[in-house]
């Protein structure tokens, strides 16, 4: 079954007859936002508020086409399931109507949802019909809503960061004017009329000062404007240079209300939180805020159009206005004197700390009078408070405490205390310097103790303090730590004895990981030899077919027939002699299959006669090692066997001893050398560690 929100999205745009007559004001709005700014979530919050008919929404939202309905339904379903909406990968034109029946207004809104940040590229991907529809809507728009990410603003630390965001936002508005100019066919100026621009600062539930400001319409706009201005400079002036903008206003917005972060659940204030790690509240607690203020502002467009009534109303009432101003000024003077007296009483109350006294003054909704006495008293209390904070900084060796003090000083900065601005900057620099010392000491201690967390601590230090002089020392420690880990891994690989096929494969796997991690620190020859050894291990463990030629065997003098038996796994290959000679040269070829784990046994037999039991083994050699095929690689000496005949007596055995000589080309000498150096016994690992 569909939710109430989805059912509402399926509703047609057509309203009842009496409702249409009540819609006296009509506005067209275009929504603009770059990648990652939260445009999809903004639309989701709009749908949550405007389409949940059971909760008496402040406005009603109706999708104008099927694709918009489907798009908004997907976002709402994701929010109510506790997930963020999936990233946009296809350019889509979205259009819908917003009705505020209590006020009697209708807002037609249109936007493009597209991947990436290039608005013009997304616009060019539309069909010709959609291009015309969008451009017509744009040129008739009363308002353009421009989305800004509050988390991007929070991360602004210098002029470079500010310029990057400012340029991206200005580009978004410039494209709107360029598009209108192109469609008008005029080169001089675009036909786009004077419009209002609403700056919507998204994700404000993550910024405490913005979240608190939503309870007052004017206060919310002023606090948000000051927050943006502090990080982007005079952004209003920059926008007005782009095109004809009549009014600019700022709004704090959250699409879901109160997001939940892992940091809040575990209580670790040191961790940073990205939007990808934030959790949505459950479906019953989705409370978008900030949207009504936008629509109130849009509907007040006609009231802001003061040019039409200025000359008609101002002159007739100029005299009356002067009288009212005079009376008002007198009342204000009396009021200011009373406020000054009350403020001085509060500031002089020694039962409270300096910070508490200043806070009481600021929390008073009425503005303070412009009094030099009050300012001097505020300055004195602020100096006293900052002296206290400076002592806390000097005595603190705890990173958490220093960060808390730093956050408190930032709050003081937001209050715009110009009288102590330089002092606040000095204390923040002092905190940063002490944080560098504490974090560097933690990195050094982790290195000395060979802690597993050393690498993470070092990388955090370099990320936060790349330009400090201690950063070079941290980089040196990282290099030394890496070499130490490399030698430790060499030692572990060297100690693995290949007693069976599994251990041999495990050693080869460790070599693969070692190359992957430290290839930049190894020579080309060493890497090549390691890979050769791993390849031979793979052939051994998977098994393959071999071709071998038996060149010679023998090494004893005996008149009877001689036979060489080669047992590979459960198969036996026999090669008889061609005569009763001391040295036999049969040139006998064997084709066989072998894989690691199958034993190989070589037996040299002779016929000892019936009295001695027939055929008897003269000498033999056997291997059950994972590289047993090594017995067949070249000339192999056999071990004499004492049976009924004592074959080790000089009268039988030749000077060179019993032997078998093979011609075996399937494995080269370089491969055997690499296998010996890095697998069995792997002494090259030990040599590199010296």
How would you sum up this structure, described in words?
Helix 18 (372-395) runs parallel beside helix 20. By secondary structure, this protein is α+β, with helices and mostly antiparallel strands. The protein contains 26 helices and 17 strands. The two termini are 72 Å apart. It has a seven-stranded mixed beta sheet with strand order 2-3-4-1-5-6-7, with helices on both faces.
**How many helices does DSSP assign?**
26
How many strand elements? 17
Note poorly predicted spans: 10-22, 184-190, 264-273
Q: What oligomeric state best describes the polypeptide chains here? A: single chain
* Rg (CA only): 42 Å
What's the main sheet like?
A: 7 strands, mixed
Strand composition percent: 15-25%
Overall helicity: 40-55%
Query: Which strand order spans the largest sheet, edge to edge or round the barrel?
Result: 2-3-4-1-5-6-7
**End-to-end gap:** 72 Å
Shape: elongated
Mean pLDDT: 77
Output the structural class: alpha+beta
Secondary structure blueprint with pairings:
Blueprint lengths: L3 H6 L7 H6 L2 E8 L6 H13 L8 E4 L2 H15 L11 E9 L4 E9 L5 H6 L3 H12 L3 E7 H5 L4 H26 L10 E8 L5 H5 L4 H16 L2 H6 L4 E8 L9 H5 L24 H9 L1 H4 L2 H7 L4 H30 L6 H10 L8 H24 L3 H16 L6 H28 L5 H11 L5 H25 L6 H18 L5 H19 L1 E11 L7 E7 L2 E6 L6 E2 L3 E7 L5 E8 L7 E9 L12 E2 L1 E2 L18 E5 L5 H10 L4 H7 L1
Parallel strand pairs: 1-4, 1-5, 5-6, 6-7
Antiparallel strand pairs: 2-3, 3-4, 8-11, 8-12, 8-17, 9-10, 9-13, 13-14, 14-16, 15-17
Helix pairs in contact: 3-4, 16-18, 17-18, 18-20, 19-20, 20-21, 20-22, 21-22, 22-23, 22-26, 23-24, 24-25
């Amino acid at each position: 079954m569909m939710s109430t929100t989805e059912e509402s999205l399926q509703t047609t745009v057509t309203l009842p007859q009496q409702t249409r007559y009540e819609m006296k004001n009509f506005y067209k709005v275009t929504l603009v936002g770059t990648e990652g700014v939260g445009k999809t979530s903004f639309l989701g919050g709009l749908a949550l508020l405007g389409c949940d008919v059971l909760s008496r929404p402040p406005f009603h939202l109706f999708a104008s086409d099927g694709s918009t309905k489907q798009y908004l339904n997907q976002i709402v379903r994701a929010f109510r399931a506790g997930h963020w909406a999936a990233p946009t990968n296809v350019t889509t034109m979205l259009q819908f109507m917003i009705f505020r029946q209590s006020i009697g207004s209708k807002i037609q809104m249109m936007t493009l949802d597209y991947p990436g940040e290039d608005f013009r590229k997304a616009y060019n991907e539309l069909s010709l019909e959609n291009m015309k529809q969008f451009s017509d809507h744009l040129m008739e728009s009363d308002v353009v809503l421009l989305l800004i990410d509050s988390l991007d603003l929070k991360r602004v630390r210098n002029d470079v960061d500010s310029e990057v965001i400012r340029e991206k936002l200005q580009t978004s508005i410039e494209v709107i004017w360029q598009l209108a100019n192109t469609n008008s066919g005029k080169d001089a100026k675009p036909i786009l009329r004077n419009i209002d621009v609403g700056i919507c600062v998204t994700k404000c539930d993550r910024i405490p000062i913005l979240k608190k400001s939503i309870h007052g319409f004017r206060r919310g706009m002023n606090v948000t404007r000051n927050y943006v201005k502090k990080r982007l400079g005079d952004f209003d002036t920059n926008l007005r240079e782009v095109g004809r903008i009549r009014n600019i206003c700022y709004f704090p917005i959250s699409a879901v209300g109160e997001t939940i972060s892992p940091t809040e659940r575990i209580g670790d204030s040191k961790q940073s939180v990205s939007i990808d790690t934030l959790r949505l509240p459950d479906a019953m607690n989705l409370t978008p805020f900030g949207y009504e203020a936008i629509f109130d502002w849009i509907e007040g467009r006609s009231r802001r159009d003061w040019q039409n009534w200025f000359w008609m109303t101002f002159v007739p009432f100029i005299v009356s206005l002067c009288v009212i101003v005079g009376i008002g000024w007198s009342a204000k003077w009396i009021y200011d004197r009373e406020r000054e007296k009350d403020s001085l009483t509060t500031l002089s109350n020694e039962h409270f700390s300096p910070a508490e006294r200043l806070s009481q003054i600021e929390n008073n909704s009425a503005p303070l009078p412009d009094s030099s006495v009050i300012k001097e008293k505020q300055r004195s209390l602020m100096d006293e408070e900052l002296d206290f904070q400076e002592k806390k900084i000097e005595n603190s060796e705890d990173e958490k405490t220093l960060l808390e003090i730093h956050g408190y000083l930032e709050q003081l900065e937001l209050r715009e205390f110009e009288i102590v601005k330089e002092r606040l900057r000095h204390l923040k620099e002092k905190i940063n310097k002490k944080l560098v010392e504490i974090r560097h000491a933690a990195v050094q201690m982790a290195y000395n103790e060979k802690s597993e967390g050393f690498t993470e601590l070092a990388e955090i230090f370099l990320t936060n303090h790349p330009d400090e002089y201690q950063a070079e020392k941290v980089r040196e420690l990282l290099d030394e730590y890496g070499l130490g880990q490399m030698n430790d891994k060499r030692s572990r690989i060297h100690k693995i004895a290949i007693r069976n096929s599994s251990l041999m494969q495990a050693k080869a796997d460790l070599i693969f990981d070692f190359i992957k991690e430290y290839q930049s620190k190894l020579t080309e020859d060493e890497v090549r030899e390691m890979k050769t050894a791993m390849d031979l291990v793979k052939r051994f463990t998977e098994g393959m077919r071999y071709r071998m030629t038996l060149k010679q065997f023998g090494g004893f003098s005996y008149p009877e027939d001689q036979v060489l038996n080669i047992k590979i796994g459960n198969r036996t290959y026999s090669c008889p002699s061609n005569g009763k000679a001391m040295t036999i040269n049969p040139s006998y070829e064997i084709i066989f299959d072998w894989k690691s784990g199958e034993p190989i046994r070589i037996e040299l037999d002779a016929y000892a006669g019936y009295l001695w039991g027939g055929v008897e083994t003269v000498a033999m050699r056997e291997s059950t090692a994972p590289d047993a095929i090594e017995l067949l690689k070249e000339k192999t000496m056999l071990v004499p066997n004492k049976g009924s005949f004592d074959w080790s007596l000089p009268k039988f055995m030749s000077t060179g001893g019993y032997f078998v000589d093979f011609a075996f080309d399937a494995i080269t000498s370089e491969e055997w050398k690499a296998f010996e150096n890095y697998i069995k016994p792997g002494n090259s690992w030990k040599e590199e560690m010296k």
